Backbone:
RNA sequence: GACCCGUUCGUCUAGGGGCCUAGGACACUGGCCUUUCACGCCGGCAACACGGGUUCGAAUCCCGUACGGGUCGCCA
């Protein structure tokens, strides 16, 4: 039997970090087994579902390379089918019409909570003839005693006494299906074999299993993964650090880095840290998932992001540095040459344009305040002398280094006497990659012009 | 409150009875390299929640306590 997994977000907000990781695990598990990974939008609640949220979820998933196989299923479009199943259960005697009003229910709930007993609707075994002419919900009959054990692939065997399970509502008073019913029916109809989701659904699984059993359907394999917490250990919530996946894109994180980090959050393969998509597919298994909740650590995400930035091809890095700006072939060539040096210093993609600004055009760069301090009168004199002695032809980094070495010796100076101020004059900054590499790729004419332009005092 | 789950360095984790005076990564930190920053390299700090068992031997197995999380909706 081929594996089918699914990621089923509810479109009430954006795709957050926890959801992204759940999607990742489902994707990886399916790919590992050569199965299918499906998407289903759980828009059962019309009030809270929005088109914007659906778009945002797809946007996030696409960014992370976690788009589903085929079209995403819209749960709301399947309402008829859900109702049909509820009817079937009703006819088979597994469910009943419950005429309890919301107020009555609230009262019962309070009492149940106080006594520790579960709510049992008086309509569960009532005579259908006595039914009033008013709205009703359709509830599933939970066994009164005994227990159910789920062989969860992450949590292990988990047992719950039926006495703690209420008769779940499958159809609301207005006849619409609830989430509890819809998941089960959709998972079955979609052929889902493995349900991998947050462990906030673990308790639901017991209720859902009863619907499955009543319908005589095969029970899927369950894997309830621990939730992700914020850096302070508190639950991640919208107002507490639970940023949308795409917010990280905007902050300059690469999707590869995000997936790698998310994968390691709660899953491990020995001491391996840097794991690309291909490797992840090969290695992923449910056994590697930990049982305890993990905290989201931006520092580590950033470290991994730096790694992936460094691994980018120079041409891609050059394009990133340009940030959409036009550039002549010679400037692109220059940026490509400088790319590895810049990438080594970047933590976020957005660092690139700022760092490379002085190299992305031939205009005289403005000197930043801290760099200006390096350009005192003495330094300017030295630089102007250097500019005079510079050859007309461009030099390779090695050749320029050799030239500079000889020039320094002739002047009786050390590299530290010229390096920092040369950097300040040529780049306008105090901190940049190797100034020799920079001068070489900028070209002698450029270097002379910049020294002249920035050493006027 | 009831029910379920969890607990190894600050964080993510390795570990599945002796290989553990507990390993890796991030962070922090000392040094080297050096034209700055960064990278890299070498070194350091730092953990088995607690208490009982079981065993020749426990981070690893069992029980309890504490703490943390989750669930208890005609939300998903």
Residues:
């Amino acid at each position: 039997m081929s594996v089918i997994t699914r990621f089923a977000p509810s479109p009430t907000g954006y795709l957050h970090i926890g959801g992204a990781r759940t999607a990742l695990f489902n994707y990886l598990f399916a790919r590992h087994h050569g199965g299918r990974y499906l998407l289903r939008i759980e828009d059962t609640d019309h009030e809270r579902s929005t088109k914007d949220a659906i778009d945002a979820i797809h946007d996030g998933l696409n960014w992370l390379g976690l788009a589903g196989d085929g079209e995403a299923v819209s749960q709301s479009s399947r309402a008829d089918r859900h109702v049909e199943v509820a009817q079937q259960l009703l006819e088979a005697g597994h469910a009943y019409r419950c005429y309890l009003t919301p107020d009555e229910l609230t009262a019962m709930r309070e009492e149940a909570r106080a006594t520790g007993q579960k709510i049992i609707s008086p309509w569960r075994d009532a005579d259908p003839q006595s039914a009033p002419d008013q709205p009703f919900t359709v509830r599933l009959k939970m066994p009164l005693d005994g227990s159910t054990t789920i062989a969860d692939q992450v949590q292990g065997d988990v047992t719950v006494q039926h006495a703690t399970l209420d008769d779940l509502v499958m159809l609301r008073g207005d006849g619409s299906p609830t989430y509890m019913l819809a998941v089960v029916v959709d998972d079955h109809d979609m052929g889902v074999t493995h349900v991998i989701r947050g462990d906030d659904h673990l308790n639901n699984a017991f209720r859902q299993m009863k619907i499955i059993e009543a319908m005589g359907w095969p029970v899927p394999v369950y894997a309830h993964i621990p939730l992700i917490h914020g850096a302070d250990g508190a639950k991640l919530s919208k107002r507490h650090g639970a940023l949308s996946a795409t917010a990280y894109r905007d902050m300059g994180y690469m999707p590869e880095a995000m997936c790698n980090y998310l994968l390691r959050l709660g899953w491990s393969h020995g001491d391996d840290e840097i794991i690309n998509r291909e490797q992840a597919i090969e290695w992923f298994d449910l056994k590697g998932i930990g049982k305890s909740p993990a905290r989201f650590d931006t520092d580590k995400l950033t470290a991994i992001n730096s790694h992936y930035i460094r691994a980018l091809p120079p041409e891609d890095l050059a394009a990133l540095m340009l940030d959409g700006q036009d550039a002549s072939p010679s400037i692109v060539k220059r940026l490509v040459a400088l790319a590895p040096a810049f990438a080594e210093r970047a933590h976020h993609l957005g660092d690139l344009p700022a760092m490379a600004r002085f190299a992305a055009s031939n205009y005289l760069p403005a000197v930043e305040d801290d760099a200006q301090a390096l350009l005192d009168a003495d330094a300017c004199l030295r630089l102007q002398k250097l500019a005079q002695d510079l050859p007309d032809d461009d030099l390779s980094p090695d050749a320029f280094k050799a030239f500079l070495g000889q020039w320094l010796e002739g002047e009786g100076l050390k590299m530290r006497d010229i390096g920092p101020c040369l950097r300040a004059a040529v780049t306008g900054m105090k901190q940049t990659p190797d100034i020799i590499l920079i001068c070489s790729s900028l070209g002698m004419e450029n270097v002379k012009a910049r020294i002249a332009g920035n050493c006027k005092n």
